[in-house]
Amino acid sequence: MKFNLRAINRLSVKIFVGFWLVTIAMLVGSNLIVHFLDLGPNKHFSGYDRDRAYGAGDRLLREVVSDAVNYDYEQVEAGIRSMPNWVTYNFYLVNPEDKDLLQRPLPPNVNAILHALTEESPFSRQHIGDVNYQGRLFRLSDGTPMRLVVLSPKESYMGWRMFLSSFWHILLLDILISGAACFYLAKYITVDIGILKEATKRIAQGDWNVRVADELHDRPGEIGELGQAFDNMAAKLQQSMLEQKRLIKDVSHELRSPLARLQVALAIAQQRANSEITGELERIKHAADYLNDVISEILALPIAEQGDWELNDVVDLCTLINGIVTYNREEAALKSVTIKLVDHLGESLIASRSSTLAGVFDNIMRNAVRYTHEGTTITVILKRAADGQSQVIVSDGGPGVADEHLQDIFEPFFRTDEARDRKSGGYGLGLAIAKRTVVLHGGRIHAENNSGGGLRVVVSLPEIPGDDSRA
Q1: Cβ neighbours of residue 409 closer than 8 Å, sequence gap 6 or more
Q2: Catalytic annotation on 253?
Q3: Which of 238-242, 282-286, 407-411, 421-425 has the lowest average pLDDT?
């Protein structure tokens, strides 16, 4: 299994850190128990359980003696001189001439212990003041008699120093190996979760074609079954959404015929009506027109998938936007609103379908004119984005949209202010149609609030590869 280091997510980090810390705690804890409780093979002979006060000193004495008896005098002397100061500080190794191998003067208490060591009594232990003394008479491999005295002060950290000196390299190696193992384990556990997470995000964004079974088919047990169940769920949701869209369109289409007859009858009634019922008929006509407009926008919602959406036409985006700006300037002038066009593209050929893109940008421009404040300026910028796509940015001087609703305004029938939208003629479908149309063209659309107030709608569309506008 191949892992991408860039795909490390928060869950895998948490699992990795958690596993690694537990492993480190187990390694350190087990070594501490073995060291300080003296659980080695010689624990039954050390007598450590009978007198814990001498534990660190006893361990140091045993380790020095057990090593020294295997070497001759010269080797032992060289080895003692190579030891760190914190180790030799806690013991004196004396030769038959009563000289310390490191040429240090012998304290009186150490001399007292040395004189108590004989062939008949080769081991001595005394507690003087706050210091524990242990002495041992032994012979080297060449028969040289040596006497060892170990000092273990009550408040010293000799036990910890011996632990670190004996186990640090083993602990470091174990920690590194366990870290690598925990990292692999964390990634192995979370890689499948990451696949499902990304698939869920894509479904939430409207991509109903996403499937995960091919990526999870070789996973053992429940993970593979989960991938298959996820695909079944996605397929059923996709079918349900398509059926729902088709049903809405079918119902809307069926409503148009009786609605048309109603509008014809209403027009005849208005011609024959007297002044007493003219107002009521006008309200009926307004309601019928409203219903007709809603049905028209529902029927305009694309229901095809991107693969089924044939782009059979080519439009120059700059020419298209220039025409829409010109067309809306007259309506904007009624509010003393100026529309400013800034073209950094010059020419940009876009694969399209009929006049669908014209409807997208006309809707965005009409919304900008409708909601911008009187006397403000609407700015339309044409430029090329960093990824090479052509970009159209429409900024108005209106009230903007609450940050939590910037994604919702592209959903069908969503209104940030229902009373205002109905009064101004909106049905909550224009931006939904725009988004679906842009996505079917392989582009992106999003909205954001301007720092100085107003709403900015950004549309990015891919240019035709190899067109002259890229030069």
Answers
A1: 401, 416, 431, 447
A2: yes
A3: 421-425
Tokens standing for residue 2 = 């191949």
83-92, 154-163, 194-203, 443-452 — which one is most confidently predicted on average?
443-452
- In this structure, the strands spanning 313-316 and 349-352 are antiparallel
Q: Do 396 and 356 touch, CB atoms closer than 8 A?
A: no
Among residues 371, 429, 363, the alpha carbon closest in space to that of 392 is found at 363
Of 217, 253, 286, 344, which residue is the catalytic one? Answer: 253
CA dihedral of residues 316, 317, 319, 323 (deg, nearest 10): 140
- Distance between CA atoms of 29 and 280, rounded to whole angstroms? 88
Residue 263: pLDDT band by 50, 70, 90 thresholds?
confident
pLDDT for position 47: 47
Q: What are phi and psi of 133, to 5 degrees?
A: -115, 135
Q: Where are the domains of the chain?
A: 1-203, 222-300, 306-470
pLDDT tens track for 411-432: 877 776 543 444 454 556 788 8
CATH number of 222-300: 1.10.287.130
Confidence check: pLDDT of 44 > 50: no
Which CATH number fits the domain 306-470, given the four candidates 3.40.50.150, 3.30.565.10, 3.40.50.300, 1.10.238.10? 3.30.565.10
Q: Are 210 and 233 in contact (CB under 8 A)?
A: no
What is the pTM (predicted TM-score) of this model?
A: 0.47
Amino acid at 435: K
Class of domain 1-203: alpha beta
Kindly give the interhelix angle for 55-68 and 73-82, rounded to the nearest 10 degrees.
140
Parallel, antiparallel, or unpaired for β 338-343 and 377-384?
parallel
Residues in the chain: 471
Report the number of secondary-structure helices (H) and strands (E) in the chain: 14, 11
194: closest CA among 223, 228, 152?
223
> Cα separation of 266 and 291, whole Å?
14
Of 403 and 260, more confident: 403
Tell me the C-alpha to C-alpha distance, in Å, between residue 334 and each of 328, 338, 373, 374, 396.
Answer: 10, 10, 12, 9, 16
95 alpha carbon, distance to own chain's centre: 67
- Name 352's bridge partners: 313
